[in-house]
């Protein structure tokens, strides 16, 4: 998804006017897919996209459309050029810059009782420049505090990687391991070895709201050929592919494909991660009712980022 398309989602949700009460912000650390940086994001935002090249996007978790907010971090070579373009691309929302310096540009849009901010900051990390953008309906002061914290905590590399893995292993996650791979999952989930002829294991919540299966087999087909075949199969079965891109997990290229369809009137969503190392294919697939998958995106990302091939 492009930055423009992601930000466009914001404008579908900002017609309602409502004041927001200030609450203490808690934070969660994320690492870019290429491990070029780590950053702290408010814990009430969920990871929407983490792509090769350092592009990340987050969406605020809220049932209230008037509380919509989005954060994007993208590598740039032309400073605020894309930010300036976004400020004027929608004639219904005219933003005015109210604060500006070489590394920040803050703008506000007001319509009667309603107002929103678009805040941008430039961060230099190891010779590369990143544009941080926050679109929100919070007060200017609250939004400025959030983006400043993101800017301040965005650092080179993965300084807390080993500690994070240790904490995960010792706290809420259990390790699954066989001669070929390892992956971590919540301790209270159930595990079923060889649930069918194709799968090594199925691991999921006891209430069956979310879970995943791992399929592994040898093949001479390339990753791109496997992905094309999977996409063709999804199309022929009436599924809608909403995401289909390659990314890197723990140094290994994989394809992430998201499909949606209805089963007896119930919306279903699957997220499949397909890896190819040597002649062996590894497929990790999450799938259940769409509402449960969407509610567990952060957990799914945490599980998949723990996956390692031996």
Walkthrough of the structure:
This protein is α+β, with helices and mostly antiparallel strands. It contains seven helices and 20 strands. The protein has helices spanning 3-10, 81-88, 140-153, 161-170, 223-236, 290-295, 297-304; strands at residues 27-31, 37-42, 45-51, 55-60, 69-76, 96-101, 104-111, 114-125, 128-136, 155-156, 173-177, 181-186, 190-193, 199-204, 211-218, 240-249, 252-263, 266-277, 280-289, 308-309. The radius of gyration is 21 Å and the shape is elongated.
- Helix segment tally: 7
**Extended strand count:** 20
Low-confidence regions: 1-22, 160-170
Shape: elongated
- Beta-strand portion reads over 45%
Mean pLDDT across all amino acids: 83
The strand order across the widest sheet is 3-4-5-9-8-7-6
Global structural class: alpha+beta
Query: Secondary-structure element sequence?
Result: HEEEEEHEEEEHEHEEEEEHEEEEHHE
- Measured as a percent range, the helix fraction is 10-25%
Describe the biggest sheet? 7 strands, antiparallel
Please give the alpha-carbon distance between the first and last residues: 32 Å
Quick structural gist:
The chain is 22% helix and 46% strand. The two termini are 32 Å apart. The chain has helices spanning 3-10, 81-88, 140-153, 161-170, 223-236, 290-295, 297-304; strands at 27-31, 37-42, 45-51, 55-60, 69-76, 96-101, 104-111, 114-125, 128-136, 155-156, 173-177, 181-186, 190-193, 199-204, 211-218, 240-249, 252-263, 266-277, 280-289, 308-309.
């Amino acid at each position: 998804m492009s930055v423009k398309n992601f930000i466009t989602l914001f404008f579908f949700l900002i017609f309602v006017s409502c004041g927001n009460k200030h609450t203490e912000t808690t934070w969660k650390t994320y690492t870019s897919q290429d491990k070029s940086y780590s950053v702290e994001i408010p814990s009430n935002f969920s990871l929407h996209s983490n792509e090769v090249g350092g592009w990340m996007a987050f969406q605020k978790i809220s049932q209230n459309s008037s509380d919509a907010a989005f954060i994007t971090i993208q590598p740039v070579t032309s400073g605020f050029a894309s930010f300036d373009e976004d400020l004027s691309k929608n004639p219904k929302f005219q933003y005015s810059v109210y604060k500006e310096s070489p590394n920040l540009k803050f703008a506000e849009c007001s319509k009667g009782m309603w107002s929103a901010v678009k805040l941008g900051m430039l961060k230099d990390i190891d010779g590369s420049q990143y544009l941080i953008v926050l679109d929100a309906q919070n007060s200017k002061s609250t939004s400025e505090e959030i983006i400043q914290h993101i800017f301040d905590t965005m650092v080179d590399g993965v300084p807390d990687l080993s500690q994070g893995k240790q904490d995960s292993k010792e706290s809420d996650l259990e390790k699954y391991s066989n001669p070929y791979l390892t992956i971590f999952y919540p301790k209270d989930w159930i595990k079923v070895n060889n649930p069918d002829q194709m799968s090594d294991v199925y691991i999921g919540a006891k209430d069956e709201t979310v879970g995943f299966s791992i399929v592994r087999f040898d093949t001479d087909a390339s990753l791109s050929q496997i992905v094309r075949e999977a996409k063709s199969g999804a199309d022929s079965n009436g599924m809608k592919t909403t995401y289909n891109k390659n990314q890197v997990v723990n140094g290994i290229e994989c394809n992430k494909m998201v499909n949606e369809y209805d089963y007896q009137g119930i919306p279903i969503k699957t997220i499949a991660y397909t890896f190819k190392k040597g002649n062996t294919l590894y497929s990790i697939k999450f799938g259940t009712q769409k509402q449960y998958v969407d509610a567990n995106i952060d957990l799914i990302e945490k599980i998949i980022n723990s996956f390692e091939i031996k």
